[in-house]
Specification:
Chain lengths: 255, 254
């Protein structure tokens, strides 16, 4: 309990970068998000756990305006995502990095072109040397410098994921939303990716939401953990607290 | 009943807003020149042989088919002119557009559909780039420019095909044939038929992009997007042709 109150005090001093209040979302007759409220504080790594199909991906898609919630409010960096003009929304999106669960690499482009795309289109960098240097730096970070001229179709699932990660990190966003960054990777690479997430937090002061099923990744990266079930947040705390939780569902993640 | 009527209006509304998105983006900054040229290459150059062969054979076959009948009337020397007029005014623009609907509309529909399904379009949007600008504007413009050019080329090859066919008996010189083919042709034949191919090109690109860009989740919707792109692009071409012919006969021949 002591740690909890300490956390609370700490929270009150820090700024909220993402705030969800009573967000509800259904597709047809299927209620996916029944009532979600959560905050992401500046500079923290927030891990979100939850069974498959509980609406974790839907939640973070609402945060960038890819999906529009039926009810409730989504505020990112003090702006209401659903009431922004399209240039403002674009501006906001450049500050938020989004790693897709599937990687979502552009099939028709090489790895190099995939990484160039956000640099030239979003940051509008013209200087070829700077582009080259940034691409090599980020590929080195994900350990795939050798794949620079490969086509996405020639890469394995794990490699595609890491390139997707590189493409998001290359913009050095203020907020990162990672959708299962380590799923499908071997334990060694998983660990490297988890450490990369930590490094991003330290080096660039990024605030991140990390959706994962990988408890090793959660343990390494998390400052705070939320557990979702059936479209609601059912538990919150740091790794140690939740590990000792009496709740059966929460406990089952830690076994 | 009411739901299907509602669906039709919804679809029409979506298409109109997609179109206004396209026009809004043509004139905004950040035109993707390189991608546009790449699309022109894919759409135009890669269709050259298909369109060329079709054009040649159209002229060839038209001539062979009409020659016996015309000769029966003693009007064999009108064949080149007749073939030229029907090819240039109607047959080439429509047939080439329909072929391109099958080849180009479906491939655009499938390509954008699979990009949609694999979240690539979402990824572009979320990174702050403009997928309409990069994917849609370039493709629609490339179609609008390349389909008329392809049709012009097919027109020329169709005349050559006509010449070849009527020369099987060996009774026309090159000059004589083209004199006969071109003498009944006027500007009024060429210009409206060229103008309508611009609209055909737009329809081919637009329908392909619309169907692909708005396809559903799930891999089977890629096939649906490709298929429905061909169906509705073909329908649009036929409808536009009917309208174009009406307009030309009202304005050009009075
Ligand atoms: N665009 C959409 N249209 C219709 N249904 C959707 C859409 N997106 C998600 N869903 C549905 O919402 C539910 C939650 O999906 P979501 O992808 O958020 O799950 P998840 O918690 O991320 O699961 P996983 O761990 O497997 O990725 C699923 O049942 C899914 O079918
Ligand atoms: Mg998910």
């Amino acid at each position: 309990m002591e740690t909890l109150t300490k956390n609370k005090e700490q929270k009150e001093n820090t700024k909220t970068v993402i705030e969800l209040r009573n967000v509800k979302k259904s597709f047809g007759s299927k209620n996916v998000l029944t009532d979600i409220s959560m905050d992401l504080f500046k500079g923290e790594n927030l891990v979100v756990l939850g069974k498959s199909g509980t609406g974790k991906s839907v939640t973070i898609k609402c945060m960038v305006g890819l999906l529009v919630q039926d009810e409730g409010s989504v505020v990112v960096l003090d702006e209401d995502v659903n009431n922004l003009s399209s240039p403002d929304l674009k501006e906001l999106r450049t500050k938020v990095g989004f790693l897709f669960q599937s990687g979502a690499l552009y099939d028709s482009m090489t790895v190099r072109e995939n990484l160039e795309f956000p640099l030239t289109r979003v940051l509008k960098i013209k200087d070829q040397d700077e582009i080259k240097q940034r691409i090599e730096e980020v590929l080195e970070a994900v350990g795939l410098l050798s794949a620079i001229d490969a086509m996405p179709s020639d890469l394995s699932g794990g490699m595609r994921k890491r390139i997707g990660l590189a493409r998001t990190l290359i913009l050095k966003p203020e907020i990162m939303l990672y959708d299962e960054p380590t799923t499908g990777l071997d334990p060694i690479t998983s660990r490297e990716i988890s450490e990369l997430i930590l490094l991003m937090q330290k080096k660039y002061k990024t605030s991140s939401i990390i959706i994962t099923h990988d408890m090793a990744c959660a343990e390494i990266t998390s400052d705070r953990i939320l557990v979702m079930n059936e479209g609601k947040v059912i538990a919150e705390g740091n790794f140690e607290e939740l590990k000792n939780s009496q709740d059966e569902l929460v406990g089952s993640f830690f076994k | 009943m009411t739901t299907s009527v509602k669906k039709v209006f919804e679809e029409a509304g979506n298409q109109i807003s997609f179109m206004s998105g396209f026009f809004g983006n043509i004139f905004s900054r950040g035109f993707e020149g390189n991608e546009f040229i790449r699309q022109c290459f894919i759409i135009g150059y890669k269709s050259l042989s298909l369109v060329g062969i079709t054009g040649f054979i159209l002229g060839f076959v038209m001539t062979l088919q009409s020659e016996p009948t015309m000769k029966g009337f003693g009007a064999g020397s009108f064949v080149p002119g007749m073939v030229a007029i029907s090819i240039i005014r109607e047959i080439c623009p429509v047939i080439i557009a329909l072929i391109c609907a099958g080849k180009i509309s479906s491939s655009i529909g499938a390509e954008l559909g699979s990009m949609k399904v694999s979240e690539q379009i979402d990824a572009m949007e979320v990174s702050g780039a403009n997928p309409i600008q990069y994917l849609v504007v370039t493709r629609i413009l490339a179609c609008t420019i390349m389909i008329p050019l392809l049709t012009l080329m097919a027109d020329a090859l169709a005349l050559l095909g006509g010449f070849t066919a009527s020369n099987i008996g060996g009774h026309y010189s090159f000059l004589l044939y083209f004199n006969k083919a071109f003498s009944p042709l006027t500007f009024v034949d060429l210009l409206p038929s060229f103008a309508k191919t611009i609209f055909f090109g737009f329809a081919i690109g637009f329908v392909g992009c619309y169907k692909g860009y708005n396809s559903n989740r799930g891999t089977e919707s890629v096939g649906v997007a490709a298929n429905s792109a061909v169906v509705s692009a073909s329908l649009w071409i036929i409808l536009l042709d009917a309208i174009a012919v009406q307009l030309t006969s009202v304005f050009a021949y009075n």
